Batch of 2 targets.
Target 1
Amino acid sequence: MSSKYAIEIESLNIKIGNKHVIKDISLKVPKNTVFAIMGPSGSGKSTLLRSINKLWDLYPEVKVSGKIYIDGIDVNEIEAHELRRMVGMVFQRPNPFPHMSIYDNVAIGPRLHKLYKKKEELDKIVEWALKKAYLWDEVKDDLKRKASKLSGGQQQRLCIARAIALKPKVLLMDEPTSALDVVSTKRLEESIVELKKDFTIVIVTHNPQQAARISDYVAFIYNGELIEVGPTKDVFTRPKHELTEKYVLGKV
Amino acid sequence: MPRLYKLWLALIYIIGLSALGVLLWVLGSILVNGLPVVLKYGIGLFTNNIPPPMFLFFGKPEVGLAPAIVGTLMVIGIAFAISLPIGFTAGILIAEFKHSKIAELAEELASTLVEVPTITAGISIYWLLVIPMHNPSALAGGIALSLIMIPYIAIYTAETYRKVPMVVKEGGLALGLKYSTVLFKVIRGLVLPGVISGVLMALAKGAGEAAPLLFTAGWNDKVTLNPLDQVSTLSVLIYKFGFSSQELWRELSWAASFILVFVIILPLIAISKIMVKKHEF
């Protein structure tokens, strides 16, 4: 059962304690696109993103209701770890496994999921992932170096490599550049545009310019409500909603 | 006011230094009194049996601590084998399943057990095990000691797992790995030094305890490897011989103190501290 959408979300509601954080949101994310979710801090974008790979399962105080389909598969029909195998994630702050080498950080997913037979195959996967994440040239001479020794920007690209080494269908990115400087941000954005050839990417950002630069589709979320969604060009040039226009112009 | 402050500061220094002084005095007196005895009897101390009570009638007896050294290792080994799996599991439960009632209970239990006087562990195992078995034994001693060591290992394990940031664990989960895989494989390298350090501290604590063994391990002049036999241990020997009017007993008590502190406990603590240093990333 395959769908033309990588992700379909139907009337999603999320409550954290008594707070209604996501209010009845429905979205469809076409395959092999970069889909940006933008909105001011505290609007619920990250909360929405983390529900796509069921990360809220660990937090009993968070209640998620509604339907989410990944490539046509109802996420409630499968185990959380099976779902996350299909849906990779890059976090707001780089979170490589600090005690492991660069190589092991990328290799651990394929290794624990037993995705290869020979060591050479694993080497190939690691090289492929690091190249896709635009990190290979900087680290190829010293793959045994500890991940904690890398710069913040390099660590974040390492996290991308770690996620895509499993060849997920979808890659979720939760404000991946918020802890990075301008140069690192530019690098990361380049790699995101490259990655959409192989993956569907959902990126959360509080920066409308970033959404405009890299995304094909954009959803604007404000106060837990979906205000507007559509092709990035349309939303930025002819916003239908007054609030979107204000936000895009930096007035919210 | 500044003068008062200076006075206050001076007082703090004096009290702090005297605390350190007491520690150094204890270690120093063990060194000064113990080392000469160890040198006097040499290697025989580690291979010979403890001289029997009537040694004065037997001419020149063999002098050694071998039964107490072997007994200590046996009791500690048994306690280790029991307390490691239980303590580690409890620690994981406390740190990682904090929403469950059992985890809450385990944490309460561990923090209470640490505070309980160690002699009560001895007396309870005496009633539970020694009386039904009609005999003290290395096994009973080991079980009593494990009651002391389990909460240590549990608390250290929990602390170590708690130190790993949630976002690192989520990084593992986001790779489609089960929670148990993340805990036992992905972050293993991150927590192992901390857990080992806790286990070593628990061993050091256990090795030095006499109270839980007084009722449970019994006494033996000769080396035995049977866990159901009575054994003597260094700590109990120190207690038994320390007050004796016989010079030889007192000598052996000092020698046992030296071996216990400088050969067993301090090295364990030192390795544990190095492990903790390595754990910081």
Target 2
Amino acid sequence: MSLAAETPAASETILRRNLATFTGNRLAMLCALIVVLFVVMAVFAPWIAPHDPNETDLFRRLQPPGWMAGGEWSYVLGCDALGRDILSRIVYGARISIFIGIVVILVATTIGILAGLAAGYLRGWVDMLISRIVDILLGFPYLIFAIGLMAMMGPGLWNIIFALAYKEWVIPARVVRGETLVTRELEYVEAARALGASRGHIMLREILPNVLSPVIVVATIRMAHVIILEASLSFLGLGVQPPTASWGSMVADGRAFMLEAWWVSTFPGLAILFLVLAINVASQGLRDAFDPRFSE
Amino acid sequence: MSLLKVEGLSKHYEGRRGIFDRLTGAKHTVVRAVNEINLTVEKGEILGLIGESGCGKSTLGRAILRLHEPTRGEVTFDGTEVTALDAAALKAMRRRMQIIFQDPYACLNPRRTVAEIVGLPLKLHGLAANDAELREKVAAICAKVGLKPGQIDRYPHQFSGGQRQRIGIARALISHPEFIVCDEPVSALDVSIQAQIIALLLELKREMGLTYLFISHDISVIGYLADRVAVMYLGEIVEMGPVEQILANPRHPYTQSLMSAVPEVDHAGRNKRIRLAGDLPSPLNPPKGCKFHTRCPLAIDACRSQQPGAETVGPGHTAACHRLAENLSLLDETQA
């Protein structure tokens, strides 16, 4: 038997195959590009924004977008009730949305992975404890509790992150627990035990790499969700405090002038829509590539 | 002294009791997957363990290695009581007792390269001073099991079933163990590959002085390589003895029916098949008395109430049956 003849090229790994599937999906790639553009916009906001986002100019109060009568092209998306440039505020607002989205998801996913691995691998009372906490948290209405927490703790960036992450971790935790319950019974896990591997080694080195794909997919989908929640909190005035620009609070600011100055609310609303939509479509592409089981 | 001695080894699984069961005082449902097993394995021999699916063969193999913690009983390996070892001592002992698995697809972590998989025992037991030495040792053992040195940075999915089984064997052997549980290592492979893997296992045994507990449901495989055979039925050993004795002169009716089921090329009508009625009883609710009585053509009243003990029927040959004295043989009966 020729050993070489039946093995494919050594460079082909599972990860590469998955990435190739993803990059072959044009719509997902376009959306991934849009997400990247938003991130670039957030990181380089001071260079991209045409004006200071907090500079008020009462002469430009509710100035329309550049292409409308009374508008100016240097304030292309118009100005808000305090005469601040809407485009600049959207550019700076991306920082808040994306920063909170990433931090909440990172914190929640890390906690969720550890909790899920512990529950799924150690079973017994550990699983009992973690699963009951998860069940209880799942019973909490997400936004209402976030509002309650924010009302208790007061506004502030880290308070928002806590108010969103306190519950977000249950989602990756459940995914990881379920995958771990299946994976722990596989023979390679038993082989590691037979070789004398510790529980930590088995959980982190044998099981974790094999349950990561669905976690990555879930994390991206949930990031869109977290961004909406942050916008909702800011809309309700419980998020980042003025004058710091946040898309949610910008939508709220424009609500009073919806009929005479639609642009104040509409453009930040569109920013939320595009970012969330792009993340969702891109994450579906990721899901199809990394976890074909979930695709219809 | 035997290399491995198993005394009264049992592995029971308790069913979960819900709140309702506890309130009504319902008893635990207990699955006696492995029940009161006694056996010894001499250094350098191959003990074949045979039985149908679900009879507890694999559970017994894993209980011996404490991969499944035994419920009762003792396992003594080379004078050390394995069942009494603490975690650290058990880890050290694992170097000397290894296992080869059935499923060549499930037994290798798909996210690790061959070098990482096969090198893991060296890392865990500190048997390689540095990466270069580790890779050298991995390449050496891979060459020994018939893999090319250039293949050690590949992933498991790039290999065929037979090659994957070779990787699993390399992983089990790299720490130079003395005793290996082979848990149906060839049943998932094509027949032509089976022969290669069996030849490899025999060659490695000679070369490295290994001792095998070889679990299989394939009598021809066991007949080819085992020195002694133990036959399991519903978690218990019903007959054990030298392979020639078991094959030529099986004494337990269950063994006799197993032997009659072996397909023969030379079809001179030597044996008729003994068809057993019914299915393997549920281990949740095993029959009283002799576990085999529900399907045994020779069963008498005593079989339904009393459990037979193992009796010596020849040199090194024991069987557990109430009707050994009558010297009944189903094989003879059907021949007539």
